[in-house]
Amino acid sequence: MIRLPAVPRINSPAMLLDFFLRLKNSKIPVTLMEFLTLLEALAQHLAFGSVEEFYYLSRLCLVKDEANYDAFDRVFAEHFHGISNPLEDVTGTIPEEWLRKLTEKFLSEEEKKQIQALGGLDKLLETLKKRLEEQKERHQGGSKWVGTGGTSPFGAYGYNPEGIRIGQAESRHHRAVKVWDKREFRDLDDSVELGTRNMKVALRRLRNFAREGALEELDMSGTIRATANNAGYLDIKMIPERHNKIKVLIFFDVGGSMDPHIELCEQLFSAARTEFKHLEYFYFHNCIYERVWRENQRRFNQHCATHDLLHQFGSDYKVIVVGDATMSPYELVWPGGSVEHHNPETGAVWLGRILDQFRKVVWLNPAPQPEWRYSESVQIVDQLLKGQMYPLNVGGIDQAISYLSK
Amino acid sequence: MKFTGTASYIATDDLMLAVNSAMVLGRPLLVKGEPGTGKTMLAEEVAAALGMPLFQWHIKSTTKAQQGLYEYDAVSRLRDSQLGDDRVHDIANYIVKGKVWEAFESDHRSVLLIDEVDKADIEFPNDLLRELDRMEFYVYETRQLIQAKKRPMIIITSNNEKELPDAFLRRCFFHYIRFPDRETLEQIVNVHYPDIKSNLVKEALEVFYGVREIQGLKKKPSTSELLDWLKILMSEQITPAELNYNRKNKKIPQLHGALLKNEQDVQLFDPASRRSAY
Predict the structure, then answer these.
(1) pLDDT category, A378, cuts 50, 70, 90?
(2) Which has fewest Cβ within 10 Å: A167, A195, A326, B23?
(3) Inter-CA distances, B125 with A210, B3, B30, B120, Å
């Protein structure tokens, strides 16, 4: 039996239990064991008095990944509201001018009318402000952004509005803020739990593939041979330590027509991340051209030249391209055909280079296979890959993996 | 016994609480954070501050969990048997103790550092679950149960190269060392260089945070780089005014080699070369 110590106001077991359940509801992976650890720590008087200490202690016990710090912070603030507010107030620090300009720039006449219907621009700005606040909290809470130090709203100002994930959560102003959403490319979240049975099976297939080539230890037959040659005197032969040899390079198509498939891709990504020691991943939009990028948030200012990748990664890397290959055929066959920027060379040329450099390349397509034949670009890509395009489902991954490991 | 930082190591409140909680409850403490924020140093400093012996186990990609416990040196034994050495009759002669065993054996409560746990194979943390939980393991060759005399304080560092298994995480306390804020950083600088002029620190920090804020750096300079840089700034007798001049004119800081370790990062400062990169 654990006796709870006298922590002022936050000590009631019911309140702690509620807090725990709330964390669980917010999809923070907390377990009962960790909760008991927290109670044990409280019983040891490790945090007494200040809410701050209690905050540190509960975070120490319950959160095991800095990516969840931010979510934890928000639940904590919400739950222990009034006791303390660890998150500073940012209202008023966002330059209204900026918001207004941005809004005007991105809204069409029609949408502006809709905004009027929703209570006018001012109200929308309110909502937007709230959203930005949330965004700021995220920084501070520090999922990925921990330690960047850029907590000033002008830090946010610095990068593209598309980069700020405004309007990611559901909202009653959904229609109006959708504009902000338009060019939003979510980073693939690798922390997704593999819920569906299908993906678990796929995971197992990937594992088979990753474990292949494992061999090590004492070279038994070599030792016997050498000892026999040595007139019975022992002559030990060793073979080198084993390594997980499989190296994987994944390219993800993001944005646009890929949006409906985000969840599927996240699952694949999550599975691959846990399975492969040598996993490199990059993002592209529609087709791979002369540059790809590492982090979606930074897609407009941080690229990697595809040429560099071709030199950097050896031909023994297995390449998996994940994308629906649905685009205008011009993107593939016409210089400058990209929807996003001017590309001096066609998508087909770049795909060809990738195929030349890497021995095994497959394309996983999340779109249902029966639909492929209606899209010209899918067929072109399929031809380029010499038929190595597979649907992104268990069967497809299975086939793709067996081709890759051949 | 409470850890409150040392003369040369500034610990924030949350870090102190983390260390002390881990100590009281006897749980391993998993520490993550940007490179150069003093993760490995922490174990050394805790050991020094509390007068505990320190055992360091540095993990490499080829390290196996078993190596931390003990290894049976079969090859030596075979050789000895061929040469007719008497030692060969006792298998215990060929059991080589690992760092975990050493820490378990210590008469005083010790600090055991498992450094860069994410370098090892994915299975590595799972293979240590029971050892970390119960603080005991079994030596099959000699049929011995090794139990910790005093539960060591275990500090584990990770650079996030790989995800760690849930079962392992559940058993640990987790602390993320965030990059220190200006105030803490000034304290850190002052402990390391008590004689440094305050206006130099001020200007240097200005430059330092400016560099860190540049978008697209491959490797952001961290505390350890700042300390190195300050050291050479002092030895080269760079004045605050000179630093200020370069910062105002958006020039690359003096002696940038200590801050920026990557050629591409250096190029970010040079507009001409940046343009040609595209």
Answers:
(1) confident
(2) A195
(3) 19, 27, 12, 8
Angle in degrees, 0-180, between the axes of helices B13-25 and B39-50, rounded to the nearest 10: 60
Contact A298 B215 (CB under 8 A): yes
The CA distance from A224 to A235, in Å, is 8
Question: Which chain B residues are within 8 Å of A148, Cβ to Cβ?
Answer: 179, 212-213
Q: Which residues contact B246 (CB under 8 A, 6 or more apart)?
A: B207, B252, B253, B254
Q: What would the pLDDT profile of A267-279 be if each residue is shown by its tens digit?
A: 777 767 766 667 7
What does the pLDDT read at residue A154? Answer: 32
Residues of chain B with Cβ-Cβ distance to A149 below 8 Å are 179, 181, 209, 212-213
**Interacting residues of A173 by C-beta distance below 8 A, sequence separation 6+:** A118, A124, A127
Question: Which tens digits make up the pLDDT trace of B157-187?
Answer: 998 777 788 889 988 999 988 888 888 888 8
Report DSSP state, residue B230.
H
Kindly provide the ipTM of the predicted complex, given to two decimals: 0.81
Q: Which amino acid is at A101?
A: K
Bridge partner list, A248: A279, A318
CA distances from A117 to A110, A114, B144 (A): 11, 5, 78
Q: Is a pLDDT exceeding 90 seen at residue A399?
A: no
- How far does the CA of residue B65 sit from the closest CA of chain A (Å)? 15
Looking at the DSSP bridge assignments, the partners of residue B173 are B29
